[in-house]
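Researcher: We're teaching a course module on how sequence relates to structure. For the next exercise, students receive a sequence and then see the predicted structure as tokens, so they can try to spot secondary structure elements on their own. Here is the exercise chain.
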Amino acid sequence: MREIVMSVLHRPQQDILRFLPEGPCACGDNRLSWVAIQHGAEASRGSLNIYDFISKTSANYPLNGRPGFACPTNQFNTFVVGLERRIVVVNLDSGEEMVVQDDVDAQVDGTIINDGIVFDRGLVFGTKDLELTHPKASLYLWRRADSQLVNLQANQICSNGKVILGNGSERILLDIDSPRQTVVRYPFDVDAGTLGQPQIVVDLRDQGVFPDGMVATPDQRSVIVAIYNPDPVPEGEVRQYSIETGELECVWQTPGSPQVTCPQLVDSSDGVKLVVTTAVECMSAEAQKIAVNAGCLFLGETDFESLPKPLYFELPSTL
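Model: And here is the predicted structure for the students to work with:
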């Protein structure tokens, strides 16, 4: 098994931007986006951030609420965002916000949208219970063909990383509900909006750590999982597991930052790299003395030769 030590790519200068970064996405040549879900433990707003690999600078765009995810669209500087309990399209240049879906989790109180991904048939995303204790969140499909919001599974607590494999209507969905400490695989019928029987792919229930964000390897045979460790330890981990066997294949280490939230693979001038976000969330002052890089973005080497063409959210014609 290969072990790789990652380096700090970006250290947000403001403490509020280090609290809970998640959801890195390639958003054009030499650009990376991510969300700061909320600007502190009591904050009701967050932001979208963009890092430029050439200038090594970042830009911050405050949002009207707490974003769980933000994915680039087919228009420059325009993103589809899971914001509080609605799906919106936000243009960063104008600040204009257009609603795609505004009744997410209408059946419960005390949840907001969390992690989500774009695929060719729409969006798959989840919500989280703000207390992280009650199974009242859900996993959703927003289906492009009919602009319908479909509840794929209720009774989640904190719906995090997602990966969709295959083509057509019948696919495989890998999903993480972090407090349950597993990566689960489902048969996924997009047209019917249904999931089949679950199968555990990765089981961390005896390890004291929590799977968070997730991305597939380019050959779609493995998943790379961010490991959120709440203990005051000096480094964090990102782990690659085989989807078929659950075997641990590679570990990336994040020195000085144990709470790893989300991974993403990106193309660079010298090969495919792994980028991960990390968080300060819930850390005591004593823990932060050990976790000196908490809240930073990290960059690591990979053995991957190329990446598939990135998917962008195609803006509906009605917007």
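Model: If you want an answer key for the exercise: The chain has one domain: 2-301. The mean pLDDT is 96.
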